[in-house]
Amino acid sequence: MYKTLMDTVGNTPLVRVQRMVHPDTNSVVLAKLEGNNPAGSVKDRPAVNMIRQAEKRGEIRPGDTLIEATSGNTGIALAMASALMGYRLKLIMPDNMSMERRASMAAYGAELILVSKETGMEGARDLAQSMQASGEGFVLDQFANPDNPMAHYQSTGPEIWHGTSGEITHFVSAMGTTGTIMGTSMYLKEQSEAVQIVGVQPTEGSSIPGIRRWPKEYLPDIYDDRRIDRVIDMSQTLAEETMRAMAVQEGIFAGVSSGGAMAAALQIARETENATIVTIVCDRGDRYLSTNVFSEGKVTYHDAPSA
């Protein structure tokens, strides 16, 4: 039986980080490569699940219009899933997101609605709700929809538990909508209360695409701080430096939030004996190239030798 594209969501590789871990540590750092999902990020999991579950409840059916506020990866994932499942899609996002993200959404046929950088994700979320109230479509609402974390409870968590043969001691994830960390925590804590769940958020003033330090009034409804054992504040500078090192030293080409999560995982490896640490590499680096966070590297020009 042949697979459909939908069947390729999940079951992403779990690989050992080699050169970035200090040689004196006896801890293991593992990276879950979510960029291997068909639309290129961890958000493929909740995007598919939110649409599937809304269909099962009779809230939507193919041909309807979906609306979502997004900083990028969820929008791309929803655009892919909507194209595959027969929905029209309107995506609302701040205008400072990378051109690659916008182009990817448009390539799948989504309509983009941009708000100002100052309006931000909070304003984008407000606009989505206003559009739904005026009858323009159905908001899936990744920030309040329990089908978001349940996607990770049903897939990401079990994959990590089985991929480490139950030896995981720490799970590290950047926090945006918080769906990944909430659902994965729920599953892992059911297997072993000893597993430490570590969230990563930006320091005050840092801008790291895909993760947020939410004002209390906009904290995602799906977030439950009881599911997190520790929160590490991450600077934009360290996140970007670690992201570049991942590519150069490990061959893992990822985005800035993945760099922040990896930096936190490496910190835990330095602090902890005999740990097995899993971190989420949530997407691929090619959707950040236009932001100039990657070095151009050494480029030389040389004429071909004359005959």
UniProtKB/TrEMBL annotation:
Domain Tryptophan synthase beta chain-like PALP: 7-283
Modified residues (N6-(pyridoxal phosphate)lysine): K43
Pfam family, one: PALP
MF GO annotations: cysteine synthase activity
Enzyme class: transferase
Pathway(s) of this molecule: Amino-acid biosynthesis; L-cysteine biosynthesis; L-cysteine from L-serine: step 2/2
Name this polypeptide is given: Cysteine synthase
Organism annotation: Hydrogenovibrio thermophilus
Upper classification of the organism: Bacteria, Pseudomonadati, Pseudomonadota, Gammaproteobacteria, Thiotrichales
